[in-house]
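From the methods appendix. Each design record in this collection lists the tokenized structure first, followed by the designed amino acid sequence. Records were kept in a plain field format so they could be parsed without special tools. The example shown here is representative of the layout used throughout.

RECORD:
FOLD TOKENS (169 positions):
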């Protein structure tokens, strides 16, 4: 009987460096997976108080200061139409209100009501517990590094996409 030597998986030192395309794909797939998990967590956190993750996201955008629907959409990276639909629902629920916009007659401002602020505040304890568990698993430094990497990735993608947009006159 002849024995064959076991094959060894390539080590990090001997493996070829990933191509730019492979890195982009890995970053995108990792971001999509993380986004799905964060949305699932947000649904679980917001459901007990009668919100959805999307409604919580829009309310959160206008807790500090009122914003236009377009401003909320830009800050969240989603379409203006989606934000308009969510803002209308929040207004119907009494969680937000439209205010006149001194800078633009037609683009009203969206502002959280006291009821909306209370709803977001009610999510606080469960949010803090999830944050504690995440820091316990990753460590504060590693989580901060992940946040910085995501910010850098988002910033680079924004610059690339913005530079490739045709100029409009």
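DESIGN:
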């Amino acid at each position: 009987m002849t024995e064959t030597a076991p094959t060894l998986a390539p080590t990090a030192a001997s493996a070829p460096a990933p191509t730019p395309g492979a890195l982009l794909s890995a970053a995108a797939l990792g971001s999509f997976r993380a986004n799905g998990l964060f949305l699932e967590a947000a649904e679980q956190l917001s459901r007990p108080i009668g919100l959805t993750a999307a409604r919580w996201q829009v309310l959160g955008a206008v807790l500090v200061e009122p914003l236009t629907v377009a401003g909320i959409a830009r800050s969240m990276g989603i379409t203006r139409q989606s934000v308009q639909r969510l803002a209308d629902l929040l207004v119907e629920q009494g969680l937000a209100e439209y205010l006149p916009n001194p800078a633009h007659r037609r683009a009203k401002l969206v502002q959280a009501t006291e009821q909306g602020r209370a709803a977001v505040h009610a999510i606080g304890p469960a949010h803090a517990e999830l944050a504690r568990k995440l820091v316990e698993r990753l460590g504060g430094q590693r989580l901060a590094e992940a946040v910085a990497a995501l910010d850098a990735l988002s910033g680079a993608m924004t610059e690339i996409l913005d530079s490739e947009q045709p100029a409009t006159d």
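APPENDIX NOTE: The radius of gyration is 22 Å.
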